[in-house]
């Protein structure tokens, strides 16, 4: 549902845009057809427009003039984060599901892509939903409400019928940096107490490599724990980082206690930060607060996942987790040298 708030359309004049953005009336609007690098040299112009994104009406494009996020309430996801004016970004989306609506009655998972939030640990799902898969419907398979306040967007899910939890996801862009923050909040609304953690899953396109900065005092002997039958075949562990690529033949998953995860392709670097809480905190999945899953062909994506600590929630409780997404162009030809700028302690 579209909130009853002022919004911008693609046909607005630059003067009206400037007034709504709180900027001098002489500023100019971004031109999506222009190269991203050209736009970034101009003064940033924040704006928000309702749009049709890949067949989903009432989607939202949120921009700070440097970067932009695409929010799709119809499927409860952030579907892209990219440089302003760039037609593409690092998030993966399933083009076969363009414009389709989630079906909470389906026994098959509708894998739309983008960024979403689930309750962790996954091993407890069948205790609440009487099934191990697909994910709980209130978290994954129902439309969300969208609220717009101060150029921020908040997605609000229905109450999941099994967990009794409503999910809030506040999406905000920094004023003048290529940075997005998503704060995910679980609110316990009904039902019996439940022990749960916030679990944020970001599905990204097949990268050239994934890098994990290893904490100086990691709890794992090898810097990670294994959550799949096999390790990625090209996994490398150096002093400061772990690196691997997507295997097109087999899925793989590892867990870590890292505060950050780094994704890069031939032109873009995306870093996701969500620091671990160190005091009196127990985490799911062998004490993991950051996990990486790689999917085989024919769906070429990886998942960079951040988890919060476990909490016993009763009605009225709230728990939150913030992930910070930083985007920048590639600067180095060598992958390891590029990663060194981002993973050094």
Averaged pLDDT, please?
88
Q: Which series of helices and strands comes N to C?
A: HHEEEEEHHEEEEEEEEEEEEHEEEEH
Q: Mind describing the biggest β-sheet? A: 10 strands, antiparallel
What gross morphology would you assign? globular
CATH architecture of one domain: Distorted Sandwich
**Category from helices, strands and their pairing:** mainly beta
What are its keywords?
345 residues, mainly beta, Beta-galactosidase, Chain A, domain 5, ten-stranded antiparallel sheet, 38% strand, globular, disordered N terminus
Overview of the structural elements:
The structure is a single chain. The chain contains six helices and 21 strands. The strands form three sheets. A ten-stranded antiparallel β-sheet has the order 6-7-8-9-21-17-16-11-14-13, covered by helices on one side. Strands 5, 10, 12, 15, 18, 19 and 20 form a seven-stranded antiparallel β-sheet that branches. Strands 1-2-3-4 form a four-stranded antiparallel β-sheet. The radius of gyration is 20 Å and the shape is globular. With 345 residues, the chain is mainly β. The longest helix has 9 residues, at 335-343.
Write the layout of secondary structure elements.
Blueprint: H1 14-21, H2 36-40, E1 47-53, E2 56-63, E3 67-72, E4 77-83, E5 115-120, H3 125-129, H4 137-140, E6 145-149, E7 152-156, E8 165-173, E9 179-188, E10 194-205, E11 209-213, E12 225-226, E13 236-237, E14 241-244, E15 252-256, E16 260-264, E17 268-273, H5 284-287, E18 290-294, E19 301-307, E20 311-313, E21 318-329, H6 335-343
Antiparallel strand pairs: 1-2, 2-3, 3-4, 5-10, 6-7, 7-8, 8-9, 9-21, 10-19, 10-20, 11-14, 11-16, 12-15, 13-14, 15-18, 16-17, 17-21, 18-19
